[in-house]
Write a structure and sequence with these properties.
Mean pLDDT: 89
Order of helices and strands: HHHHHHHEHEEEHHHHHHHHH
Oligomer: single chain
Largest sheet: 4 strands, mixed
Strand content: under 5%
Number of strands: 4
Distance between the termini: 70 Å
Helix content: over 70%
Number of helices: 17
Structural class: mainly alpha
Strand order of the largest sheet: 1-2-4-3
Length: 422
């Protein structure tokens, strides 16, 4: 049994140490490169004080690292103090059906993780984001969001857990196949449910109808050969000055959402370029390809989890009596989560290819300069690190670094010009 403990601790601590080392390397690389490329940062990104960018990334990254290590410490304390085994024993003693015991276990884990994250979220929102001028939330709004998000997580998590454990109770060892199908179904359902039910609980979405913005959007739609009547402006500025846009849904349910901060921060041509980029993910089938890739990954992890929960040593490690499968799943997640993180370069590779393809589509629709200006503006407004270390980017970035994207966009524009002239 000692061997299992040594491997478990080495896997958990080793993985976090590896990613912490990457984070440290990334911060040092940014510090050095921003110093070397100060003129480019000031002129191209229009950042008057590059030190502000470095300070923001240093503080937000440091807070994230602290949260990660504190969470890992709490997990070890819960496991090795016997609290985990005692909680499982208490649930087993109730005599409730598996569906109820499993659901209560999952919801308890959700609430516990939220409790651990709570102080870090407070510091991030009201100290780090506030210090750099991003936070727009009042304490009352933050508390409201906290309560609503917890209710939503408990409701959705409770339903999913109940369905999962009902499947386990009904079909036994093939439960992972049912869980796999549940994941696919839930992912598709959220494409419709999130923008229409969940997102409006937190933000207002106003249809963009008429005016210069609507005309600009219609122009992009026409150029892209895209039909969508659901275009919305979201009041992101109530909570943060960070900006973004997203596309969600499929078929008649698809919609495009623009943050009001994005509309305020970018020129109309740049805004059109961002919209063209987002439309490319639909036009080029990226959404379905990403879903397929995610389905394969989740299927592999679920199959591995189905093998782990059948192993007696998994329960014996922490004194869990009776081998209840919900307790085994909790432990299996701890074993598999580092594996998933270490395999992130594989999943990022597909996303990187899609982002380059979407940038090329935006260039084709709106030319290069508006897209370059959009990327520079978003980096400046969000104080994003434009110079990640290559190793860090390999494990963390599903979008190419900004200088690489700008270079690719200009090269694509050059190719298009050569093709046109030919």
């Amino acid at each position: 049994m000692l061997v299992y403990h040594l491997v478990f601790v080495a896997l958990m601590v080793g993985t976090e140490t590896f990613f912490t080392a990457l984070t440290t390397l990334n911060l040092r690389h940014a510090e050095q490169t921003v110093g070397e490329e100060t003129e480019w940062v000031e002129d191209r990104l229009d950042i008057e004080d590059p030190r502000k960018l470095l300070d923001y990334n240093r503080l937000s990254t440091g807070l994230g690292q602290l949260q990660t290590w504190v969470t890992l410490l709490v997990v070890f304390l819960v496991l090795y103090s016997g609290v985990y085994a005692d909680a499982v024993a208490a649930l087993e003693a109730t005599g409730w059906p598996l569906v109820v015991r499993g659901t209560v276990f999952v919801l308890g884990a959700v609430v516990a993780l939220q409790a651990i994250a709570l102080p870090f979220d407070i510091v991030d929102t009201f100290v780090v984001e506030e210090q750099f001028g991003f936070n727009q939330q009042t304490l009352g709004l933050w508390l409201r969001d906290l309560v609503v998000s917890l209710v939503v997580m408990v409701a959705i998590g409770g339903v999913l857990a109940a369905v999962l454990f009902a499947a386990i109770d009904a079909i036994g060892g093939l439960w992972w196949v049912a869980a796999w199908l549940l994941f696919v179904g839930f992912t598709l359902l959220m494409q419709v449910l999130y923008p229409r039910v969940i997102a409006p609980l937190f933000n207002d979405f106003d249809p963009i109808e008429g005016g210069d913005l609507a005309d600009a959007v219609s122009e992009v739609f026409d150029r892209a050969g895209f039909a969508c009547s659901q275009l919305y402006e979201m009041d992101a500025s109530r909570r943060s000055s960070h900006s973004n846009a997203y596309f969600i849904g499929f078929g008649r349910t698809k919609r495009v959402v623009l943050f009001d901060t994005l509309i305020d921060q970018l020129s109309t041509p740049s805004l059109q370029a961002v919209l063209a980029h987002e439309l490319a993910h639909y036009q080029r089938g990226h959404i379905w390809k990403q879903l397929a890739a995610g389905t394969v990954q989740i299927g592999a992890l679920l199959f591995a989890a189905s093998l782990l929960v059948e192993a007696p040593w998994l329960y014996d490690m922490f004194g869990v009596a009776g081998q209840p499968i919900y307790a085994g799943l909790g432990l299996a997640v701890l074993w598999l989560e580092p594996v998933a993180r270490l395999s992130s370069p594989l999943t990022n590779r597909l996303s990187l290819a899609h982002e380059r393809e979407a940038d090329a589509f935006a260039v084709e629709i709106m030319d290069a300069e508006p897209m370059v200006e959009a990327l520079a503006g978003l980096t400046s407004e969000n104080l994003s690190n434009p110079f990640p270390h290559p190793w860090y980017a390999t494990f963390h970035y599903d979008h190419p670094p900004i200088p690489d994207r700008i270079k690719h966009i200009r090269e694509t524009a050059g190719e298009n010009e050569e093709t046109d002239s030919a």
